[in-house]
Predict the structure.
Amino acid sequence: MWSYIVRRVGLLVPTLAMVTVLVALLVRLLPGDAVEIIIGQYTPLTHGDREAVRRQLGLDKPWYEQYGEFVAGVFTGDWGTSLQSQQPIGRELARRLPVTFELGLLALIISIVVAVPVGVIAAIRQDRWLDYLMRGTAIVFIAVPAFWLGTLVVVLPNVWWGWAPPIHYESFFDDPLSNLYFVIIPATILGLGLSGSVMRLTRTQMLEVLRQDYIRTAWAKGLRERVVILRHALRNALIPVTTLIGLQVPLLVGGTVVLETIFSVPGIGSYLVTAVNSRDYPVVQAVNLVVALAVVLSNLLVDVLYAYLDPRIRYA
Amino acid sequence: MQTCEKQGWQRFLRRGLTRRQFLRAGAVGAAALAGSVYLACGEESAPSTPVAGAPGAETPWLGGLLRFALSDVQGRFDAQRFPTFTVQAFNSFFVSRLLKHISAPDDPNTEDLDLPPSDWYRPVPDLAKSYEVVDQVTYIFTLQDNATWHPVPPVNGRPVTPDDVVKAWEYYKSARPDRGVNLAAIDSITVAGPRQVQVKLSRPFGPLLVMLASPSDLWIYPPEATNNPDLLNTTLIGSGPFILRSYQQGVMAKADKNPNWWATDDRGNRLPYVDGFEAYVIPDKNNEISQFTAGRLETMTVPSELIDVFRRQNPQAIITKNIANLLTMIFFPPAAYEANQPPFNDPRVRQAVSLAIDREALIQLASGGTGGKKHNLLNAGFIWYVDPEGPEMGDLGQFFRRDVQRARQLLAAAGYPDGIDTELHYTANAYVTAVPYYNPMAEALPAMLREAGIRARLVNHDYQSEWINPQGGIFFGGLRSGMAFALETPVPHPWNQFTNQFSDNPRNHSRIRDPEILRLIDQLGQETDFDRGRALALEIQRINARNMYYIPLVGPYGFTARQPYTRAYAAPTSYGIGSESTPYFQIDTSRQRL
């Protein structure tokens, strides 16, 4: 097991290198001049002025040199400086990561809290109207994009009742209630989106497990339904579900990018959007590195957890 | 030294009082009104409200928290190092300029701003309460008697001194990425007295006052801030109407009223009227509208495509409309002027192009049906704009109205009875979000032109490599044939725009050399009188309309809304909004939901 983990960690490096190289290249292919966006598109810069600013920002160097400096900085704990704000990126990431983490965690919790019971109920009421209703709802959750649902939540209650989502983010440690009120809406939208596939897998796994011999034995022993379902069936059915939840981290990240913009959440998703729009290359690289790291680590965690939950799994 | 009669403010403000404003101020009486325009020689007292729309008879509402959405400055505070309009607009709440632009009276009964076009962008006092023109190259500015820095460390409310202005000027020169090209005519700024600075020019420079009023250029920061980049990068200290209390990048800014700001209204109330503001970063416009509808914002800008929805949701909102300072235009290849290359060397062909364009339809397209204005060579949101179909343009207005028959006749007279085959060049990947109507307009133009026999193939160019590339990009004189549909770079003063468009300059997109226009630009560059400057600009616009060197198109309205429980005697006309209009914003706190 340990050798497997070491090998997987070893693979992190080339994976992250590939991601960051790709991002560094692609962001520079975007149309628009970073200098003009940063300095002001309408400032009458001469060619010489523009080149001087480019030099000052370090943009006159070839992209691979800029990339090399970025990577070298990351290894020494320096995430670089934003071209826009001239402030350390590390400081901004430290401020924004907990916000996105909170949003993502809450969304994950909501998706599990919604999906697992619904999946179990759908399985034990297989092919009845409740099952059809829940499966249909799950498909709606999968099919409806978060940005659309987010926009509806912003617009429709406002039209009907004059209600609007909260406007101002407060840190959890400063004002927990305000913080939860602010985060719960985008987290619910994100969580519902994720819950569809979790619910469907939970149902499928439950149906499979409920047909196993040991479940029949449990029924035959005269155990109560609650014990059979929760203790014997669900625990085994949840093993693949756990892996699915872990694999949803990339979807979670994608969702936060959109929902943070719609609901003005000051996390790394909105930071990334702003950075892309303003061609703030170091910020785009840094945020993508963090996101890639989160995705790769969550995948590793899922693999390890899978082996832990199912003792039959052995990694060579 | 010129007499007081020659001094700027008196005449500017006297002209700024329209009939409607006069009536509005009637109950206060002539004495108060006279007081409001008394700025003569400026030594006795600070001026009253330097805005065209004075509160007049109504008792002002004092206090309240103003809430609005903010374009995030992304941690950039220094408007000299980062001269983007976002940073400059943010600075305008906290930092003074020597002068600022006059604001428009905001009449709740009409969506049109109640400011005559001739007054648009007039300079009025900000940190300087008056000026004297000593000679053509020497100006003396007298600072407000009671101007102080914000009561925060390290300046701690000390008076603003002439030496501070000198140091701010030195910082401007050293920090600007464009090396201060807009104010290149200023040779020096020196201390001229206990409350005075002398601005010495290297040559007569007519646009000086408007340029000093523009939020594009000289901001008066305290030397304590400019000497300490860490301080300037983390907060904004100035002598403006508000004091920055906190700023969270991507979240919000909080500010309190500056209790010591120099300005008072006619009744002696210190401005700003509100106690402070909270400005939130709300990237999603739907969310912003929802917040306004829920009563969490007092004012917001509404994009034209959402104005109908907005009106339905907020029938009580008070709305004003305005045109952005941005010119849409068509220009022709340099070879048409330099090498007499047909067909666009012939002014009749260029006039035919203008006549073929259905500007009303373009306005509908650009605004989503909410309306807009036809541009002249100066765009409809800019100082000294003249309605191209108005009386001042005389019979030249005909070239701004669609007349397909006449266009065909002009083409035939120019030797093209069967019309012409040409191209219309544009760039589709630059303005999708910033100017969303640009691409649809480009796509609509060929069909309009075709009806007049001008068969223009639409050709798209990459913005970075082919459009604004300084080495032969289309925008910088690289158009080889056909026509180009472009946005003109906004500048602080018409003199800049005309110089760019007609003199030896990379932004003379078509390399036009018109000796008459060059002579007028030269005159304009030296003209210190606001109204004579306007007359010169009008003449240049007339010559352009006659020759259609540049074919001006249209701009859609943008909308600003405010809650029914607010008054805004000054509506924003420039992005110097923080000191030009916000100080006059009033809130009926008994009706405000916090």
